[in-house]
Amino acid sequence: MPNEPDHPPAKKFKPASVLFRLDKQKAGMLLPGKPKTTTIDDQRRQLPIYQARNQLLHHLRQLHNAILIGETGSGKTTQIPQYLYEAGIGRQGLVAVTQPRRVAAISLAGRVAEEKRTHLGKLVGYSVRFEDVTSSETKLKFMTDGMLLREAISDPLLLHYTVVILDEAHERTVHTDVLFGVVKTAQRRRKELNKIPLKVIVMSATMDVDLFSEYFNRSPVLYLEGRQHPIQIYYTKRPQSDYLQAALVSVFQIHQEAPPSHDILVFMTGQEEIEALARTCRDIAKHLPDNCGSMLVVPLYASLPPTQQLRVFRDAPKGCRKVILSTNIAETSVTISGVKYVIDTGMVKAKRFNPDSGLEVLAVQQVSKAQAWQRAGRSGRKESGFCYRLYTEQEFDKFIPMTVPEIQRCNLASVMLQLMALGIQDVMNFDFMSKPSAEALRSAVEHLELLGAVERNHEHVVLTGLGKKMSRFPLEPRYAKTILLSSNYSCSEEMLSMVSLLSVDTVLYNPPARREEVLAIRKKFMSSEGDHMTLLNIYRAFQKVNGNKEWCRENFVNSRNMSLVKEVRAQLREICLKLNLKLESCGADTGKIRQCIAHGMFINAAELQPDGSYLALDTRQPVAIHPSSVLFQAKPAYVVFNELLHTSRCYMRDLCLVDADWLLHAAPQYFGRKLHPSKS
Ligand code: CDP
Ligand code: MG
Predict the structure, then answer these.
(1) 423: helix, strand or coil
(2) 107 CA: nearest ligand 1 atom
(3) Model-level pTM?
(4) Is the CB–ligand 1 distance for residue 74 below 6 Å?
(5) Å from CA of 602 to ligand 2 middle
(6) Given a cut of 90, is residue 470 above it in pLDDT?
(7) 279: Cβ below 6 Å to ligand 1?
(8) Domains defined along the chain, listed by start
(9) What digits encode the pLDDT tens for the residues 566-593?
(10) Looking at the DSSP assignment, which residues form a beta bridge with residue 454?
């Protein structure tokens, strides 16, 4: 269906594909009255947490550690920092509120500034990667967990802060998990050194309370009474083979039957499918009969620029239904009011790591039960809600109960580098809440050793000078290394652009309906040297026209992501300047760039086999060139790839053509063992 947007589709999914029986009467009965206009102070007082304000403050004043559990929307994140501030708790320093996602940090800071009637960046500010909106006046600082971790590198005791609130703790991102240990250590050290105490508050809607309490010094758990409205859960009668199709059908089924003020939130897995479904929905909505009402489709995913993300919070015009298509970003982090229906595909795109093969892959997989409940909960916020699960109850029963923390399923090279930069001596025995496997830790250290970031000093693993420099970049170690190497190849300007291009979501806009056109246009930029060079050609052309929006549209370039590339690049360049890196451009000599990529990313090399297939050299795992690559039709002998995507097979994405000699030169010993015998 997504390939036939011009087809009048409404008829297509009538009776045969009905997934749920919608109880019309129930849906109709719940027509909400227009909410009375209330002042922002009234709104604050109406939050469930307000009832508990004094009691909470009484506890929080005394406790050094606290765990606060309360339903999403009860007011934890926006109110607790303000309560602390109003009660004068921790006034000697700042209150940090960490969030796993940047969009949450930004929107929450905005909301709290509004409640406090100040401009963002004054009393209330935020700090996320590549953006800092704080000032000397800032007391309440919303930040991503990754940012607080970066700050800890120069200030391991976190002395600027008197309170650290670790919010959305159940999400267990790698950064949050590392932060747990860092904050715990800072708290203990400050006590030992007689410094101002650090208060640590862990907040969440749902979590494994015992594990957290035990870890944080047997911390007391404070429960907030929620005000969750009942939610009706529906399952499909039969397993669905195509969750996108099922989601589409469900959206329009609800659209045709429920009052227009009832918004729909659909949980999906990633930008590409979200944008594709958004287009299909818009096309279909256009062709529906008039009595169906209009539809406003709003995508939401992490790589959308913040201003675009904020569109999900805006009300749809009267009589128009808002349909939000989101990744799991809307699962816990952002609160979107007015959602009456949740459609849960049951899928999420997440990292998976196999320490045996050393490969980290991004794969679409089933959510956990905890995630599914959390998703359902997004519908019962203002009034009762409905959650349509696009899987059967039997399937749900087989979901894993809790999501495995990311730290136990990702490549730990970045984490290890950061821990060592934090001055932690014995990284192998760091106080993790959930310890990664010994193999995973070992494999991370080996990876860093190969990159030259660490070396073994008797029993200990220590950071090298290069490793120290690498840790200054908020990037994966191999990208940091590649940038640092680039001055040897006189192509730092290009490498900065390249790494920035690879650090944001794709800058290429690929509307499926206009495939032929896209291909024709893209030919102009295509390089036989691979995707990196193709991307660089696009960036260079973009620079030439000064980021002209019209040019972006004509050339199927995502101008928002491109603007982000520019921002990221400026920040990375700043770090290079601080490190006195020689910044040169190699001009037309693009071989230099590929040589540099080969040198920095040699761990991700793959070799053509006599039978025409590819093997990843590091692990000897079979891999294939992703169809989106400009090298898809070619059969280069050696490539380095940027990432692996695991769907039906293991695909390499973003490829660069390299010479075997360059790889050998980059790591003679390593490749002495790995390269094809006839070539080494
Ligand atoms: O953290 P918790 O889920 O308990 O709630 P919160 O994020 O503090 O949100 C409490 C309420 O503030 C929400 O229900 C929204 O009504 C409002 N809010 C908002 O309007 N805009 C935001 N960006 C965040 C919250
Ligand atoms: Mg919250």
Answers:
(1) coil
(2) 23
(3) 0.75
(4) yes
(5) 41
(6) yes
(7) no
(8) 10-22+228-406 (3.40.50.300), 40-224 (3.40.50.300), 411-466 (1.10.10)
(9) 988 998 999 999 999 999 999 999 999 9
(10) 463
